[in-house]
Write a structure and sequence with these properties.
Osmotically inducible protein C, single chain, KH_dom-like_a/b, 3-stranded antiparallel β-sheet, OsmC/Ohr_fam, N-terminal domain of TfIIb, OsmC/Ohrsf
Amino acid sequence: MKARVQWTDGVRFLAESGSGHSIVVEGPESSGGRNTAARPMELLLMGLGACSSYDVVTILQKSRQTISDCHVEIEAERADAIPAVFTKIHLHFVVKGEQLKDKQVARAVSLSAEKYCSASIMLNAAGVEITHDYEIIAPEAVD
């Protein structure tokens, strides 16, 4: 896996993935940023959420669970000192679908956290306390 990050101006950078996709990244306003792009640490959280969500969705699909929506709300705490690393991260999954089995959703979240999500496992190994929970929402009845 490869990536390239090119400084464009001020505290803005163009990050390009090895697969040919790009995203603008910017430092905070306190460092001269203009709040026009995601911060590097925000990208880490988004990457963690995407990695874990991918696992949860694919595990549920393979378990023949009929999901219609899934999102994860992520909250993180950072150290007060520099480097301001993440100290705690909580992922709250909201899964919507027809007759979802609580046991299957719990299993999907657990497998992602403990076995499959490389980002979560890497951050946890570096000392970040990562917790997970979930809620299941049944689709609204149509009259």
